[in-house]
Amino acid sequence: MTPQTEPQAPAPPHRSVVRWFRAKDPDLLITKRSVRSAVVMTGVFAIAHAAFSNPQVALFSAFGSFALMLLVEFTGPPRARLTSYLELFLVGACFTVLGTVVSTNKVLAIVTMAVVGFVVLFAGIVAPRAATATTAALLTFVLPVAVAQPDSAIGPRLLGWTLAGVFCIAACMLVWPPPWHDNLRSRLSAAVSAIARLAEARAKGVEDIEAEADVTSELRRLRTQFAGTPYPPTGAAANAVALSKLVGRVEWVASNSAMIGDEQWSRVPTPAREVTEKVAETLRQTAGLICDGSGHVVRDPTRINAVRDCTTTLDQLITAELQDDVRSLTEAETAPLPGADAPDDLGSEKELAASLDPGFHAWVLGISTEMVADAALEAAGAEAVVDRHLGMADESASQALVHRLLSHLSFRSVWFRNALRGGLGLAIAVTVVEITNVSHGFWVVLGTLSVLRSNALGTGATALRAVGGTAVGVVVGSAIMIGVADHTVLLWVLLPLAVLISGMAPSMISFAAGQAAFTLVVVILFNIIQPVGWKVGLTRIEDVAIGCGVSIVVGFLLWPRGATAALGHALSAAFTTSSRYLADAVERLTSTRRHVDTGVSQQAAHRAYLILDDAYRQFLAERGAKVVSMETMSRLFTGSNRLRLAAYTLDSLSVHPPAAGQPELESVAVAEAVLRDAYASSNRWFEEFADVLADRRAVLEEPPPHAAVLDEVLRKAFEDVRDERRSDRVRTTLQMLWADEVLESQSRLQSDLHASADLLIRGRRRGVLI
């Protein structure tokens, strides 16, 4: 007989609860924060209620504590956290005064709410901390403006806010401060280390499959971490801007290290090997500067100097390598050019190009490594070495901040549109409060703020959860009020428990559960301040429902297509400007007798990149199913960045006109013209591709093939430079060869993008809005 396996007994209920709890909060960070908030908020409210007879003191101490402890949590080093909390406290004090002053004037209250709402939401573009504190800052204005009081209430309200600030900020800094480590820096450091190992293998001429796999794996983790970072690491400080630069530059240097094929290294010249060896060393030093083993910022002068020294040496080697390539061509003037006996053999020209490719690849790899090292130095608070800024050259931190803000003052910016929609939505909510005179109109405005999302569908779904959660909270609160009746002591006992649940529910259960818990807190608070029983809950349902209705109307009126459509338009602008910048860079290199200014197109490409970066993050953060796959959008985002960086690489080359008194060689002029035409054709295709992304075009032609005539004219130019002994034209012909190499890379990119465009077109035919 087959032995019977006895069924396992089900786990005890308490073990299932513990397992669920650990899965939701493995490090107990949410629990600690909620317990801290429950104790401190209840304590502050008790002090205000017992020591001061004015209900405004108790009201502002309670909601001020809620804002400081549950609506925001700053991370980072202690000094940065304290600075952020103090700044939020000062902003809250100013908003409390301003909101009280305008609260008795209906028109002024509405206009001021619109301005404050827009400014606070838009200011999030300045720095992650400003974006993190958006809801808390708005609460300090929404409460005084929606609860109208004369100017005499300013004192009691500031007193309540001060009580909250003193106790809550001290608790946040001293009691269970969040363990801080910068995950984005950690992933950047790991990716740079992996690329350094791959570059070292390339320099040795060996095949390292494990190193290649590590680069792929680390880049995937970096993209995942970058996608999961809710706010862009940008701001007024140079180190914040540099951290944002690092992500794109690490991707760029990784693509260049992988571009150097192992089969080429049997004939790589010594200078190119030296450049690649120094690249590996520079990247290793840079990885240690980005962060330490715990993910903390490194400001060690020894490490900073090591990166600076490596970068300086690398820059010198790059210059020497370029001079070696020029010398090798110049010295070849007396030797027969490969294939001279067979002028129609285009393969011979390709042999010459192949012999120069390793030098070009090493040069590009060195330039991109310098860019990574520069950004790492800036992120550490040190001065860059080569000072290449990709569109922000010679700008101070304040100038860079101004340019960033100006670049987002456009309806193409998701951040601008969300700020405008939020400001208008809050202003409409205040208008409703002023017209209807609903009791506790504060909840109308807060309901609008809490449910606004980037598209109408998301707003509606969140509004349903908000109203539903509030209804549940009212039912529970009403039951408590019926049972507790006028037993104030029991209300004080229940208050910290309600705050505890309110802190844990949004993260561990759902948004609706958080709304229910918050409603319970409100019911208890108002019944302690002014006992009215369960009716407070019913009032909040009415007010929140009105606020949700306002948010839905605003969501439908302003850009209801949401973040995906905005990302399509941002991608369109990024490809258009980057391709134009690339074409201008090539025109600059090939128009040696006249000056071609690439500054305008460079700045345009940089502004488009900033808008695209935020639109991409908004797309990632938006709730709900994606109408276009994440893989497709990520490929498009990366492709636009590669195009911009390729343009910058060519733009960093110096222009060398013919020597004084020397005429231009006809073959060189022809090669320059053909190369410009090739890039113009490529630029036209990218413009058509951009029209597809912006839904201005439904059909996309195949990308232009790499023209064989370009190879022929380049070979002819090399022959004539040799025959005429024109050493003054060697650099120009060499740079044209490199530009041709970049063009071939863009052709491969276009083939990949064409497949992505096909997916978008087919999706549009099925009626999907992008």
Describe this entry's structure for a reader.
With 770 residues, the chain is an all-alpha fold. It is built from 27 helices and no strands. 74% of the residues lie in helices and 0% in strands. Helix 3 (55-70) packs antiparallel against helix 7. It starts with 12 loop residues before the first helix and ends in a 5-residue tail after the last helix.
What is the global morphology? elongated
Mind describing the biggest β-sheet?
none
Percentage beta strand: under 5%
What is the CA-CA span between the terminal residues? 64 Å
Give the beta-strand count.
0
Order of helices and strands: HHHHHHHHHHHHHHHHHHHHHHHHHHH
Number of helices: 27
Helix content: over 70%
Summarize the structure.
By secondary structure, this protein is mostly helical.
List the helices and strands and how they pair.
Elements: H1 13-24, H2 29-51, H3 55-70, H4 78-102, H5 106-122, H6 128-132, H7 134-146, H8 154-174, H9 183-204, H10 209-228, H11 238-259, H12 270-290, H13 301-331, H14 346-379, H15 397-407, H16 414-436, H17 442-451, H18 456-484, H19 488-508, H20 511-529, H21 535-557, H22 562-590, H23 599-621, H24 630-651, H25 666-693, H26 708-723, H27 730-765
Helix pairs in contact: 2-3, 2-8, 2-19, 3-7, 3-8, 4-7, 4-8, 5-7, 5-16, 7-17, 9-10, 9-11, 9-12, 10-11, 11-14, 11-24, 12-13, 12-14, 13-14, 16-17, 16-21, 17-21, 18-20, 18-21, 19-20, 22-23, 22-24, 22-25, 23-24, 24-27, 25-26, 25-27, 26-27
